[in-house]
C-alpha cells in the first residue's frame, strides 16, 4: 500500500528519562549528540486538544501554509485547514517527487494557533543564548521531510509514530534533494554499509527527540501523525 512503511525496532539514539539534569544535558548532549527524552513533560492535556474533531472545530476555516517535502526549495501553498485534513492528508505516494508533495509542518500563524500552543508543555532544557519557537504539524503515513539541517531543537510526537534518521554535521548523507524520505528509505538506505548508516529511532507519543545544531536529519511518519517541534533560535 502506498505510504505503508515498516517500523525499525532497532534504535541507535541514546535515551534519557526524567532523572536527566540540566547540567548533564548541557554537558553530554546539548552541543554534541542527539538524545530521546522520556517522561520529562506531561502533554496529555495538549494531546486531548489535538484530536481530529477538536482541531477541525477550532481551526477548520483557518488557512494553513503547506510546504513541499524537498530539501532546498520549499514551495508554499495556502489552503483552509479543513481542506488539508479532508483531502490532502493521505499516505505518501512512493512515486511522487518531493516538489509535488505538500506537507503541513510549521509556518504556523501564531495569532490563530497561539491559544492551542499555550497548552503545550515544552521540554525544560534550553541552550544558553537561544529562545524557543514552536512548529506544529500534521502529516499522513509515509510522509516526511528529507535530509536537511538547521539550528538545535526538540521534536515531540503527539499522535502516531515518527521515524528519525540523523547524521553529524561532518557526515553529509547521500540523498537526492527532490527525493522523499520514503523513496530514500526504499532505494538508498538498503545499499548503505553499516558504517554509513545514520543514527535512527522511532518516536512514539510522549517521547521527545533533541537534535543539536547543524545535525543532518530526515523524518518519516509511520502513521498519520501530529507533532510539535521547539526550535531554539
TrEMBL record:
Pfam families hit by this protein: Cupin_8 (PF13621)
SUPFAM superfamilies found in the cross-reference section: Clavaminate synthase-like
Domain of life: Eukaryota
Domain JmjC: 99-233
Family matches, as Gene3D superfamilies: Cupin (2.60.120.650)
GO terms under cellular component: nucleus
Single GO molecular function: cis-regulatory region sequence-specific DNA binding
PROSITE patterns attached to this UniProt entry: JMJC (PS51184)
Xref: PANTHER family: ARGININE DEMETHYLASE AND LYSYL-HYDROXYLASE JMJD, JMJC DOMAIN-CONTAINING PROTEIN 8
Name of this chain's protein: JMJD8 protein
Gene: Jmjd8
